[in-house]
Each structure stands twice: as structure tokens, then as C-alpha cells.
Amino acid sequence: MSATTRPLRADARRNAERVFAAARETFAEHGLDAQVDDVAGRAGVGVGTVYRHFPTKEALVEAVAAAGYAEICGIARESLELDDPWEAFSDFMWRGAQLHRDDRAQCEISSTRPDVVKSVAGDKRELLGMVAQLIERGQEAGAIREDLSADDMPLIWCTLGAAQQHSADDSWKRYLEVVLDGLRAR
Question: In angstroms, rounded to a whole number, what is the distance separating the alpha carbons of residues 57 and 36?
Fold first, then answer.
């Protein structure tokens, strides 16, 4: 925050927090087709209040994307703390997949909005770095196939996201089991 920018009043800060929370929920439920009116209604504020804190829908989408990447990075950090290298990698994959299953916007952003992904590219590099560590640990332990790299993961995640979006049930879980089985060292 610059020296000339005044901090938000308490009520304005609460409104901004409500708007952001409502945006995450609304986009998670409806995906990127959700409208600013929907966010305002869920937050219990007027549309003008939403635009006061996020000047465009795109700014709101970018904030939601950044929060999603922060969340998936948190999952990767927690997975890195697990002792067993295969469990660490598998835990990350399952929890990350569940996050995307529960958050339609994150799945859509990852698979269809490279412009938004690029806007949070620093976070993506951090994520891929942690995933590279998970993979390397698994490879060193002989648990993950040697030819897998972190560069392979965005395509794997994208296909998993497509499987999730095109199944009305939990059949995507079987797909993830097949993928994980294929990534195990033989």
C-alpha cells in the first residue's frame, strides 16, 4: 500500500472481505459464467460495492485465481511434509483434484484461461517447484516412474479436470486411480 493510500475503514474492509468470499463461493459453484450481480447478491451488497473493490469482473476472476493457487500451494506444502514419498505425491494429487472438483472456477481457469493463469504465474512457478520436489522425492525412493517431470503435470491436471467436469458422479476418482497407477514406478 502506498503512503498516499489510506487504509480502508472497518466497514469497507468487511465489505471487501464479504465480496471476496462471495466471489469465491459464486465462481466455485457456477464457474466463470457467474455474474457480478450474483456475487453482490451473495455478499449482501450492491453491485457498486463490488466494483469499488474490484473494478472489473476480470479483476475479481484474477483475485479468485490467485486465492486458488495459494490454496493448492498450501496443499503441496503440506504434502511435502509427509514422510513417505509416494503418500506425499498421492496426497497432493487427491487433495488437489478434490479442490478442483469442488471449485468449478479453478478448474475452468486452469484449463481455459491461460491469460489468467499467466497473471498468477509467480504462484504457478512456486507450485510447479513444489510438485517437482514431490516427484523427485518419489523418484529417489523408487516410487515414481523416472520419466515423469513437473512439466508433465499441467496436462495431467487438465485431463483430470476435463474428466471431473464431464462426470456427474465420482467416476473421476477411478480416472485418478488409473493415472496414479500409471505414474508409479514398476
Answer: 7
Q: What percent of the chain has pLDDT over 90?
A: 59
Closest CA to 101 of 1, 147, 168, 20: 168
Q: Decide if 174 contacts 182 (C-beta within 8 A).
A: no
- Gap between the Cα atoms of 22 and 74, Å rounded: 21
3-19 burial code (b ≥16 CB/10 A, e <16):
eeeeeeeeeeeebbebb
List pLDDT tens digits, range 1-18.
334 455 667 877 888 899
Q: Which residue has the cell 499467466?
A: 118
The per-type count for the chain, helices as H runs and strands as E runs, is 10, 0
Cell numbers 467416476: residue: 171
For 148, list phi and psi in degrees, rounded to 5. -80, 140
What the block records as the C-alpha cell of 36 is: 457480478
